[in-house]
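Our consortium's second objective concerns turning raw sequence data into structural hypotheses that experimental partners can test. To show how far this objective has progressed, the report includes one record in full. It was chosen at random from the queue rather than selected for favorable results. The single chain below, 435 residues long, was entered without modification.
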Amino acid sequence: MNVRAHTLPNGCKILIRPTPDKQILSLVAYVDWGGRDDPAAQAGRTNLMARLLTKGAAGRTAVQIAETMESVGGSIDAFCSYDHLGIETQAVRDDWPVALELLSDCLFRPAFDPLEFEKERAIVLSEILRDNDQKFPYTYKAFHRLFYRGHPYALPPEGEIETLKGLDQAALSVLHAAAIRPERVLLTAVGNLPEEEFLAEVEKRWPVRGESLMGQGPSYGLSGEPANRPTGELANRRTGEPANLAQAEPGAGRGETLELPRNFEQGFVIVGYPAPLPGAPDAAGLRMACGILGEGMSSRLFSRLRDRDHLAYSVGASISPRALASHVILYIGTSRDTVDQAHASLLREARGIVEEAPEKEEIQRARQYILGKYLVGRQTNSALAHSMSVNEILGLGWEWGETFPERIEAVTAKDIREAAETYLQNPATAILRPA
């Protein structure tokens, strides 16, 4: 495939992937800064800043930004995760100048309007309250705090109710000046556009290396020092050390069980284990183990705990790859009277994939399920742009996603057993128990 990589004088990295058979262009800007970089007392500030990027910029209001993209049949959205934040625009390929202009303005010239700040904060608070009333999100957040105790991933990117209420709108401009610099951005374009003209336009619209377009005069970093002299929190960020919490190994809560009594009709159980970092040699083996255990209606958890034992209304397994520390979970939603039985069954199945070697048919089913979902999920330009960006920022190279099927095809029963034996031991457990 004809993917071309560029690095502009301002340090921005650009990937361009033509798609001759598609008319849609996807532009995705990833910033190497995420929720993990928030101090614990200000958890949620990066996510709130990211949400506000498209809510007014460079003289346009939030409505005008949306209407401008809609006028060309396009869209613009901001996103934030534990590891990254960014903006995506989609448009017909001939409208790439409009898509790039709005992406650039929103990324580097946001308004941080006080009214929009209050509006977005209220929306995030309502989303947190909603999640707290749903069994899986509530239990998963509790598991996360236990498993990553003392680690930058302990608190969710959206923050907590208490931390969000304490955030100050004015501080977001300071955060923006420190976090969003061209040398920290990867811009991926998937679609057809005039390459040289596009690169020249990016260079014209984006700031020079080490500078921010926010405000006048020197931009100041989070510590109050000029942002072009990283100190304190920024210095930690650039050396890769956690900025928000004390240093701790992931999985600090392994071997512990967190009981969550709540006034729900059903219970929920999550058991979680460490997982290899993306690109590790045994990552594909554990991915296959996860598929055999809990992905699809023919998986062990579904066929045994739900269909055979009638323990579950919801059951499954999933892996969450992260830049610093990944994890894998097994989960089950069950009745109030079978919480302990369901918990014991999850633990039994986790051990069982080591003690009861998967059959050839199980391996093939899981392989087909994983590859089928993966390939279907990469059909759009947007999906390709996100996949390329994440893999590039993680240091795997943009092409890592292209060879994922080969790694899954190469996994053997021995690989699955060894990965399960290595990782599926001594879990951290969160139990939502109906009061």
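The partners drew two points from this record. Confidence is low (pLDDT under 50) at residues 215-247. The chain has two domains: 4-238, 257-434. Both points have been shared with the crystallography group to help prioritize constructs.
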